[in-house]
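User: My collaborator sent over this chain with a note saying "see what the structure looks like." That's all I know about it. Can you take a look?
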Amino acid sequence: MKKVAALATLLALTSALAASPKDTLVYQSSSDIPTLDPGVTYDTASGQVVENIYETLLTYSGSSLTKLEPLLATKWTISNGGKTYTFDLRKGVKFHSGNAFTCADAEYTFERNLVTNSAESGNWFLAESLLGTGANANDDKTITWARIDKAVECNNAGQLVFTLPAVDPAFLAKLAFAGQSVVDSKYAAGLGEWNGKEATWKEWVGKDLTNSKLAQAPSGTGAYKLVRKDSNATLASAFDGYWGKKPAIKNVVIQKVSELAARQQAFLKGDADLIDGGGRAVDEEQVKGKAGVMWVDNLPNTTAQAFFMNENIKNAGLLGSGKLDGKGIPATFFKDANVRRAFSYAFNYDQYIQDVQAGKGKKRTMLLPDLFPGYDSKVSTYSYDKAKAEAFFKRAYGGQLWKNGFTLTANYRQGSVGAQTAMEILKRNVEALNPKFRINIQAKQWSEMLKDSKDGKEAMTIMAWAPDYADPDNFMYTFYSSNGYYNPRLNWKDAQVDKWLEQARNTVNTTERNRLYSLVGKKAYEQAPYILMPAPVNYIFARDNLVGVSSANYNPMISFSSTGTFWKELSKK
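Assistant: Without extra context I'll predict from the sequence alone. Here is the result:
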C-alpha cells in the first residue's frame, strides 16, 4: 500500500510539472491505452506497456530484425520436418502475483489465444500456424477442442511442444510478438477468466478481452508490474521478484496528454523524459537542438501507413443524406474505383513529405517496408495531379458525382499532428476541384477509432501497420487480402489478388513469392484501394540524461515505445 501511495504522489507531482526523478521514467502520450491483456493486444499504445509487464518465449536479439534469442524459453528444437517445436522453459521465474511460472502457464496462454481469437486481437496469425486457419471456432466449425489441445501441449519433461499442421518458416518470429506473452493461468482463472478446461472453452470463443479482468489487473513475469491505470495515466514499478537483471528505472509514469504544446513544454523543461512528437517537421523545429535534448536520426522504418477508403460504411451518422445528392454519400461511396483513383491523385505526397516529414520521407510503391523481401520498387505510384483527379471524379458514378457533389465525414486520430495535416491536405485539394465537394474532418479518440474501424463504421481513416513478425506476408496479406486483418475496415476484394496472396504464403521459394507480391502491387495500383502515404525516415528523441537510447540499441521489432528498447534497458545519469 505504501508503494501505491508513493506512486500516486509521484503522479500528482509529475502532473504539476515537477522535474522527473532519476529513478523514474515519465512518458507523455497522445493516446489512451486500450488494453493490458496480451490476448487482445494489437495496437502500439497497448503493446508498449504489455511488452514490459509480460514476456514472450523468445525475443529479437539486439537491433536485429530477424535473429531471435531466448527469453522465457532457454532453448528450442525443431523436428518432424519443421512441424514440431519443442521449448525448454526457464526455471525460477515468478509472476507478479507470486505464482511460479510453469509450462502449464505457457500452454494455457496459447490455448486461450486460439480459443478466444477475437477480431480485436492478433491471434489470427497464431491460429494460421497452429490450426491452419486464422478463424476461431465460431467462424470455422471444423475447429474442435481436440485440435486446439493437440496444437500446444506440455510433455512429461515439462517442455512446451507446438505441433503445426504445415511448415511455417515465420512461426518463431510470431512467438516474439508482444500479444503472445505468457500469462499467469492460476491468477487469471481466479479473476474469472477462462479456466483452461475443455468443459468451458466454447463459452470463450471469439470473446473480446479488451476490458477483461486480466486487462484491469495484469500479472506477468516482466521487469515491471502495474500499480495503477486510469483514463489519464498508467503507473508501473520495478518488480522486486524479477528473474533477470534488476532495472535501474524503478518507476514508469505514462500520462495521456492530448495537446502537443503541453507535451513539448513538459519535455523541454525536463518534466517528461519521452513524449509523442508531432511529426518530423514539427519536432525538428520545436525540439531538435534544444538544451537537454538527444536526437537520434536515420533509423529504419518498418511501418506502412495509408488512407483507408471503406467500400461499405456501416455508420449512418457519417453518411449525411446517405445519397449522392451533395448532402452526403452512399455507404458504398468508395466502391467505384474511379472515386478511389481520384482521391489518390488529389493527395499531395510531396507536400506531406515537406510539411510532416521535413523532407525526410519517400513514396512507396506498396504497403510493405522497402527493406523487406517482396518489395518491388518498379510498381507505379500515384502523384498529386489535379487534372487526373478531376478526370476520375468526372468518370465516377457515370458523371453523377461531379454533377451533384458529395459531403464526406472523415475521422483522424486525436492528438496526431501528422494525421490531421494529411487530412487537411486532402480536404483542401479535393474541395478545390468542385464547389459541391465537401470533406468534414474531425478528431476521434484512438480506442474508439480502433473499434469503429474494425466494425466498418469509419468512412475514411488513416491507419498504420507495424510488423508483428519479419515476413512480407504480415503486410501484404494484412492489407490486401479479403481475409486479411484490415479488410473489415476497407471491404475491398479482388479474387485474383486473393489467389496470389494464398500462393505466396504456401511456398518457401523466395523468387516465386517476390514475383507474386509484385503482381499484387501492380493490381493494387490499378485498383487504388488505399492512398499510400510516404514512409518517413525514423528518428527518436529523448532527454539527454536518459541512457540506453541509441541507434545501436534501437529495434523496431522489440519495442513500440519511442526508444526502441525495453524499459529495463534504460537508466538515467
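A starting point for your reply to your collaborator: The longest strand covers residues 406-413.
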